[in-house]
Write the structure tokens for this entry.
Amino acid sequence: MGELAVLDTKLAALRQGYLCSCGRRHQLPIADIEIDSDILGKIPDKLAKLGLVGAAHLVADTNTMLAAGSEVEAALQGAGVATSKTVYETQDKDLVPDEVNLARLFLEVPLSATVLLAIGSGTITDLVRFVAHKMRKPFVSMPTAPSMDGYASAVAPLIVGGFKRTFAATPPVAIYADLAVLCKAPSEMIVAGFGDLLGKFTARADWQLSRIVHGEYYCQSSLDLMETALEQCSANPEGLYRREPFLIQGLIEGLILSGIAISMAGNSRPASGAEHMLAHYWEMRSLKEGSHYHLHGTKVGVATPLILDIYGRVLATDSKSIDPASLAGRHLTPEETEELIRNHFGPMGDQILVESPGKRLTWGAREKRIQVILNKWDQIQEALAWLPTSESVLEMLDQAGAVTSPEKLGLPQSWVDDALIYARQLRARYTILDMATELGVLGSRLPKPSY
Ligand SMILES: [Zn+2]
Ligand SMILES: [Zn+2]
């Protein structure tokens, strides 16, 4: 298998473990990763090779049971492996990783199960990841759609009390993705995965930016891991639209490697920047207002050109035109910013204020920050010269058959304007949204985006 060899080569050094030039020691926590056609019938063998001998508990929803679960179940039973299963009904509503669905899994996983099999995409994997972690059982991830980059992740985003929170969990012991199943995934899931992958452009740029401005820890190897997949898919979005297997393979590879990159860096920097903050902001608002639910990657996809547009505006700014004296007159004090955050986020305001205290700058601190940016202006320009334009990413989304704008997604313009002002407060992470605000390119009164 030529394609498998590529993935194996990429991961070979990680499997061994090595001391990286970033200063950290990297080691792959996942014993086996395979993307291939006809993998479903081989699961009993693969589990045996991993030493996972004993009963298996399958977790799927009605769609993924049909797409892959039944075949895995039959193969396991044929090999004499005892099976049990949890199949969530999804005919009338989307599956949510909330308390009710978690409780059901805790009730149904037998204590005698040796391994849990998560057969599905984001929600199924997150539910299983958390429950397996708490029950101290290994789990195998079997992606049924190339829809998001959390397959290899060690954390589980769950919705508790109506709010999304990220919980510590463990990565899967193995990931087995059946290419034939992935190629038949619903198109909205494929384009969502593409959106999540395109977000790596701005995630990478934000990390470079913070490295230059703040000297933040940075690991080039974690970014290099995803490079081939990102190049392959962004160079041929029409092929993704046509579901060409080698591109679907490239997409799932990129998404799995992105999760591995996160574990290498020890945080989600390689995979998540300002575009994810916008998506996160819209998701919070959807949960709060009970409307506009969309797949994670779909939101990341439409957020990416918005962030690239801001990059374009910042990088096109003549640094000599940045006038600290006029910015000083319009500066919001930390107290004023706090009040704005409390007013905007309501009951969640206090929690958000704890997240990002470093973003409420006094004028003195902001002036120093501006000076640092201006001193490094050429270095920033040079480091980010590779960044694609907003227009080119819009075209990629369009050619892949994805939604291209928040408007086409049905999100009100006010959600976009508010996200550009407030989303940066959701995390301490420094991004272009902070730099644009500090330089006055994004003021507290925002110009409308250009599309
Ligand atoms: Zn993502
Ligand atoms: Zn490194």
Q: What stands out?
A: The radius of gyration is 22 Å. The CA atoms of residues 3 and 246 lie 8 Å apart. Confidence is low (pLDDT under 50) at residues 444-451. The longest strand covers residues 56-61.
